[in-house]
């Protein structure tokens, strides 16, 4: 795939913004989204020509629907928006409201976006959905991390959702995969060494795999 349109959720900063920039540099038109319309507009302006923006709050069904209508046909959907609220806790003492908020954004928010956008993709007979996941999960040879229990469970559930959706969309021309870019220096994890731009290159490589490439896979950066 050398051209087309991609939409990235949570694209106003960090990994999402870097992925949007990388895809733009590879010749795609890019729609950047963020919960706050001012943040989305500023990110699009900073990225330059070939970039559009939409407000998209993954926890709000009406916001997601409006974004899908405004974005139009997509070739790539990168589900990146997420939160890390329960770092340095444990399963026995973590405030469950933090776990609830985490699952609401990371799992249900992503699921809501997919339910809105993927039927539009299958209707066109092509597209690639890429879910930004984590290595702190139980699937695909990983291990759940008890030091951020809500976050880890949300990402593990996203990996399970990936495999279900891949099976559901088999034969439609739409592929659904998950990607773990590794630990990245963002506002969530400021002490990491890998820069968002480095992670974005790997994510873009996976996002732009050939149209007949694998589905239901988990791609992990090896560092």
Task: Write up this protein.
The chain has six helices and seven strands. By secondary structure, it is α/β, with parallel strands linked by helices. It has a seven-stranded parallel beta sheet with strand order 3-2-1-4-5-6-7, with helices on both faces. 48% of the residues are buried. Pfam families: adh_short. It comes from Kitasatospora kazusensis. This is SDR family NAD(P)-dependent oxidoreductase. Belongs to the short-chain dehydrogenases/reductases (SDR) family.
Distance between the termini: 26 Å
Q: Tell me the helix content.
A: 40-55%
Strands of the widest sheet, in order across it, are: 3-2-1-4-5-6-7
**Residue share in β-strands:** 15-25%
* CATH architecture verdict: 3-Layer(aba) Sandwich
Structural class: alpha/beta
CATH topology: Rossmann fold
Major beta-sheet overview: 7 strands, parallel
How many β-strand stretches? 7
**CA gyration radius, whole angstroms:** 16 Å
How many separate domains? 1
> At the first level of CATH, what is the class?
Alpha Beta
Mean pLDDT: 91
What overall geometry do the principal axes of the alpha carbons give? Answer: globular
Q: For this structure, what is the CATH homologous superfamily? A: NAD(P)-binding Rossmann-like Domain
Report the uncertain regions.
none
The sequence of SSEs as H and E is: EHEHEHEHEHEHE
